[in-house]
Specification:
With 574 residues, the protein is an alpha/beta fold. It has 19 helices and 19 strands. Helix 8 packs across helix 14. The longest helix is centred in the middle third of the chain and has 22 residues, at 267-288. The relative contact order is 0.12. It binds 2 iron/2 sulfur/5 carbonyl/2 water inorganic cluster and iron/sulfur cluster. One of its GO terms (molecular function) is ferredoxin hydrogenase activity. Residues 137-167, 178-209 form the 4Fe-4S ferredoxin-type domain.
């Protein structure tokens, strides 16, 4: 431990602390901009400068270690002026059209400018010419908004261990872009959107599909069906100032109905359907000597990662489409038939916590009888914007219920899909009963919950040993796959999600500022909301969902039937 003085307050902290951490410990708030805990601790923006007695220059507190007897000032005139001129310098080469910016009122640069009291930019300089890259279905990169903080670069490089983005060119011409300034659409980017989540400004954002959806809602000839992913209910409230991880299922449904969607369904129904298909696929592979370990296929970021980086595992992927794609396929066939609606006049919208889903839904394989399974994907953030555009007072909404006909039932197994380990737990609830040949009381597989990088378990089911593993985030996925490749580990079934934490922390979820991220693990808080919903549901096993049973009886036949294969399964690019 060391003792130091910050703004006349004596503080005792571990030796390993930075000044920023020590100040926080003492309840002193130092502004930051490029800093992102555990990801980007580089001292590049020099907004967190402090004055250290005896030192010649001001120091960046986010990287400067504490030492015994230090005397620090965080709020002297010199400090305030230096911070201000550093931010002014950033602003001098920034596209400052805040009023029309995607991050207006939700931008860390805007907040810091306001907090520092910046009123004019004294050195108005030449701006570099930039081009917006909006070629991909998922992500837009706008260099005119970029402040070169490096948060996205280090997230992609060190958290995801993918490394699509980097600093290119030098000096005044420096930009953050894929190598050779390629479009994101032409780079092996998986569209996980973790770079968007890390971005403090609007330099990286999702492709905006809101207008497309408004147009369909306004078209009286089109029957617009919306479905919401499990994780959306755990994030949407944050767009309206609710604490991280507040479960807003009922208000969300209410808002969707007010927005004018003709039908409001929960993707959870299709998550139950996925468990039926994937569970039986696994049983089939185990019983018939198929390719093992089988690996889950619901995370499109993970699928792209596998296709680009581990093509040798493509045969291990479950052939199941992801739940929202299955839902789309069922809406355009079974639902259309039962309700006597022309499938060509149905427009399916998926609200997802994910940016990669926008690209997934546009894959050529994702269709049924030549019609797209899903016609538009909006992120949780985009839904938040639609609700604001419609001037709906979200916080005052009464809870409402999803539509109940045909595809309205869902179980707790579907809800937990949105958290890491959830798909595995949901699958086990069904597979265990099939293998044991009886109903199992305890459905809580607590050993595979939580945010450890890699989770493993070995279960005895029906006298057989079933070995499973879970990885989330592509860095841990790579670690796990390398162990499988080298023969160090053998499993029957693996769950992989492209984002650390699973869908709850997908690239389409509401932005959380770096300041809040210093104290809160968003993965944990949002996952709680899903396990909470699981626990209060009466039905918690996918195969007990009555409407799923009916769907098989009336339409699909058995799990993995020919028809099920045609509508609900897919293939991958090697
Ligand atoms: Fe997910 Fe899934 S869990 S992939 O994270 O399998 O996006 O929430 O909707 O499709 O159900 C996302 C979440 C989501 C699908 C399901
Ligand atoms: Fe990297 Fe994911 Fe961003 Fe692509 S979307 S650049 S893979 S962080």
């Amino acid at each position: 431990k060391v003792t130091l003085t910050i703004d006349n307050i004596n503080v005792e902290v571990p030796k390993s602390y930075t000044i920023l951490q020590a100040a926080k410990h003492a309840g002193i708030d130092i502004p930051t901009l490029c800093f992102l805990k555990d990801v980007n601790e580089v001292g590049a923006c020099r907004v967190c400068l402090v004055e250290i007695e005896g030192a010649r220059a001001l120091q960046a507190s986010c990287v400067h270690p504490v030492s015994e007897g230090m005397v620090i000032k965080t709020n002297s005139k010199k400090v305030r002026e230096a911070r201000k001129s550093n931010v002014e310098l950033i602003l001098s080469n920034h596209n400052r059209e805040c009023l029309t910016c995607d991050r207006n009122r939700n931008c860390e640069l805007q907040s810091i400018s306001e907090e520092l009291g910046i009123r004019e930019i004294p050195f108005e300089g030449e701006k570099i010419e930039t081009i917006i890259d909006d070629k991909s279905f998922s992500i837009v990169r706008d260099p005119s908004k970029c402040i070169l903080c490096g948060r996205c670069v280090n997230t992609c490089k060190n958290v995801q261990k993918i490394g699509i983005l980097d600093f290119v060119n030098r000096g005044f011409d420096t930009q953050v872009a894929p190598a050779f300034e390629k479009s994101m659409a032409d780079a092996p980017c998986i569209y996980c959107g973790q770079c968007i989540v890390a971005c403090p400004v609007a330099a990286l954002r999702e492709k905006d599909d809101v207008e497309k959806v408004w147009d369909m809602i306004d078209n009286p000839d089109i029957h617009v069906v919306v479905q919401t992913a499990p994780a959306v209910r755990a994030g949407l409230g944050e767009c309206f100032g609710l604490p991280i991880g507040t479960r807003v299922t009922g208000k969300m449904v209410s808002a969707l109905k007010r927005l004018g969607f003709d039908k409001v369904y929960d993707t959870n129904f299709a998550a139950d359907l996925t468990i039926m298909e994937e569970g039986h696929e696994l049983l089939g592979r185990i019983q018939n000597g198929g390719k093992l370990p089988m690996i889950t296929s619901c995370s499109p970021g993970w699928i792209r990662y596998c296709e680009f980086n581990y093509p040798e595992f493509i045969e291990n992927l479950s052939t199941c489409k992801s739940p929202h794609q299955m839902m789309g396929a069922i809406i355009k066939t079974y639902y259309a038939e039962k309700h006597n609606v022309d499938p060509k006049k149905i427009f399916v919208v998926s609200i997802m916590p994910c940016t990669s889903k926008k690209t997934e839904s546009s894959r050529s394989e994702m269709n049924v009888n030549g019609l797209r399974d899903v016609d538009a994907v909006l992120t949780t953030r985009e839904l938040g914007k639609m609700i604001k555009q419609a001037r709906i007072n979200f916080l005052e909404l009464e809870d409402d219920k999803f539509d109940e006909d045909l595809l309205g039932d869902y179980t707790g197994a579907g809800v937990i899909f949105g958290a890491t380990g959830g798909v595995m737990e949901a699958a086990l609830r069904t597979v265990a009963e099939v293998l044991e040949g009886k109903s199992i009381e305890n459905v809580d597989y607590k050993e595979i919950r939580g945010i450890a990088d890699i989770k493993e378990a070995s279960l005895t089911l029906g006298g057989k040993e079933v070995r499973i593993a879970i990885a989330h985030g592509t860095a841990s996925a790579a670690k796990l796959l390398d162990m499988v490749k080298s023969g160090e580990r053998e499993y029957h079934f693996i769950e992989i999600m492209g984002c650390s934490g699973g869908c709850v922390t997908g690239g389409g979820q509401p932005h959380v500022s770096a300041k809040i991220l210093m104290d809160v693990d968003v993965r944990v808080e949002r996952a709680k909301a899903l396990y909470e919903e699981d626990a209060i549901l009466e039905l918690r096993k996918s195969h007990e969902n009555p409407q799923i049973k009916k769907l098989y009886d009336d339409f699909l036949g058995k799990p993995n039937s020919h028809k099920a294969h045609e509508l609900l399964h897919t293939h991958y690019a090697a």
